[in-house]
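Workshop exercise sheet. Pairs work together: one partner reads the sequence aloud, the other fills in the structure field after running the prediction. Swap roles for the next sheet.
Pair: D.N. / O.F.
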Amino acid sequence: MTVKLTKNDVLGAFGTDGIYTSKGLVLAVSDEVCPVWKDVLPFKSVTVGCSFEELEDVQYWLEYVYGSITNIISLFGRFYLRAKWVTA
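Structure field:
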């Protein structure tokens, strides 16, 4: 079965007040401590966790929005991806 995730499914959604209404699959964002790599995420970075079935869609949205996936790890049947904003 193919999972089709939207951008909001992966990266969450914001309300009109700029506060998350959903964090999607996001585990940590810039300046937060990452629960996977145990470091503080750099500016405009995100860590996302997903299943194997969701991996392709998660990779697509991270590359589309951030431009780059800098790290991928598989632990206990889940995949964890770190993405960093690419500037021109």
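Discussion prompt: The longest strand covers residues 69-75. What would you look at next?
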